[in-house]
């Protein structure tokens, strides 16, 4: 009797879980996902809103699971999350990921301390895990890994590192908000920076993730055709240079 009840409960839970998973796209995101919304990291918030609206029109909900970036990537590869948001087209990322249709652009490079502008001995970056290279010409094993961009910029301000690699607009967003007290001492170096397209990354060897990729790509195409993309970009004041031009 007890075994039968347990089996029925297990089956019910499985069905409920399946139903929730079936109409929900779960994206792994960084640890400051909510802060980026609240303080309007423009390219990030605009694209989350765009995907939320477009997926809803297609009958899907969008759910964020916030965690450190390297762990977020691992949950996608293992099938615990459908995709990784917001993911740049980094060198090496194609070894594990299939990318969605583009959602914009970002410039990646180094911030430096104005009092130590020429030093480049110790370069730090957020740990992303195997394969992904934020800058194609720098191997991850030659970098000092940190858990968050906030940590990296703080170390740079204390001159514990010489350079910190991060997206230009993301670094500027952090320095304009939670690290505003140190912003005057740090500056972005456009030399040897790289422009990368932005996407949602899905695990190329995971069927569930690839199914979600097809759903997201359909939602992107639908949202662009209905004008949702251009509207959220305008509403969030995303610079034109960071927007993907779907009219070309």
TrEMBL record:
The keyword Signal applies. Keywords: Signal. Residues 1-22 form the signal peptide. This is Amino acid ABC transporter substrate-binding protein.
């Amino acid at each position: 009797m007890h075994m039968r009840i347990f089996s029925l409960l297990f089956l019910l839970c499985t069905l409920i879980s399946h139903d929730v998973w079936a109409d929900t796209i779960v994206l792994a995101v960084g640890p400051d996902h909510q802060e980026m919304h609240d303080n309007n990291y423009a390219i990030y918030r605009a694209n989350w809103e765009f995907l939320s609206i477009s997926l809803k029109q297609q009958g899907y909900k969008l759910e964020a699971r916030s965690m450190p970036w390297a762990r977020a990537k691992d949950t996608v590869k293992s099938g615990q999350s459908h995709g990784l948001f917001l993911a740049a087209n980094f060198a090496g990322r194609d070894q594990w990921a299939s990318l969605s249709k583009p959602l914009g652009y970002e410039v990646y490079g180094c911030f430096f301390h104005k009092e130590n502008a020429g030093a480049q001995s110790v370069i730090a970056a957020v740990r992303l895990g195997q394969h992904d290279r934020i800058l194609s010409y720098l191997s991850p094993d030659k970098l000092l890994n940190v858990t968050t961009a906030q940590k990296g910029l703080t170390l740079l301000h204390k001159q514990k590192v010489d350079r910190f690699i991060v997206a230009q607009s993301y670094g500027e967003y952090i320095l304009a908000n939670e690290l505003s007290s140190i912003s005057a001492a740090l500056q972005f170096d456009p030399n040897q920076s790289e422009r990368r397209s932005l996407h949602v990354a899905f695990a190329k060897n995971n069927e569930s993730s690839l199914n979600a990729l097809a759903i997201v790509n359909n939602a992107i195409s639908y949202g662009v055709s209905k004008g949702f993309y251009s509207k959220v970009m305008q509403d969030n004041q995303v610079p034109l240079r960071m927007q993907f031009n779907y009219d070309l």
